[in-house]
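Journal club prep — side note

Before the paper discussion, L.F. wants everyone to see what a predicted structure for a comparable chain looks like in token form. Sequence:
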Amino acid sequence: MAINHKIEEPGYYIELYPESLADVTAPAVVEKILSILDSDLVYERDTDQSGREVVRRLRTPTLVLNDSAGLSGYSMWRFIFNVVVEVYGDANVLRKSIFTLLDALYDRYREQGFFPNYDDAHGEFDISTSVFAALFNEDTYFRNWGDETKAAISDSFEKHFWMWDLDFEHERTNRMVEGVLTYYFYDKRSQQSLDRYLRLLAHKTFNGQNGPYSYKEFYGPLTKHLLNLCLIKGINLTDFLDFTLKNVDEMYTDQYYIMLIAAHIYGNSPEVIIEFYEVYSGKKYDSSDSNAEMILRNNIEKIGGQVDLLTYRSSEYRWLIRDSGKTLSTGVHEYDWDARIWKCVG
């Protein structure tokens, strides 16, 4: 019994043929992928600026179940995980084989500084992305692992995430990041996990096609994270920006990016956003900056009310602010719950 393979023209896919369904186990599929990882699985090689040969793209493994059914990417890994956990009930086999694959991918490509990605807007087919997507998006997996396994999965995800090209970011990536951020935020490893939380949140916020979080779709998650920092961890918006610009990416220092992040807390309050920028940066607001003006006139107008609602009228945060005695402070302003206005504390 074995899993065979062949390249399907024009070569984007590589088909895996198990001799029987009994061969479809995580260890068998991983072993097969590893055996062809540096040869048949490579779709495109190139030379980088230093003259090194690098792998630009990998073929997409497709598990062929019969003459009319095949699974690729996220769907393939979800199927394999379901087989292992629900049919065989052996989670230890799953953990060992998946970490073997993820470590092998990381070791092979860390020297070139990025992972080879198949250009796919939905993130179905990148190997490491689809593995993590299947792990994080199923309730039967990440949420139900023990603390030791959760820590190992999160650590592995973080290593991979730093080398992902976020121009290929997609909805499943966002959900994975949310899962890891939530885990780090409440993890018992305290300061180490908080530092990882801040670095990952900052990197995700300022990079990729969905970063900074677009107002239309992602105001909720970013606002939630910034509020949690203020109310639970005691880290205000100025602290977060200081950390980001010092430890993660110091190129985002202009008023556009500072105001963009501030808007997720202040909502539809352009004059307060300008005041925050001027106090934080020590610079006068430049109204000739078309990008910054776009934030004030367009984006805030569209979602300001939604952010205000999420920030100040949610019963969750009403309890946190009023009954716990905690204040909502950005480091420049404090929010007066009764008057529903921001007051400068400087």
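L.F.'s comment for the group: Confidence is low (pLDDT under 50) at residues 211-218. Keep this in mind when we get to the figures.
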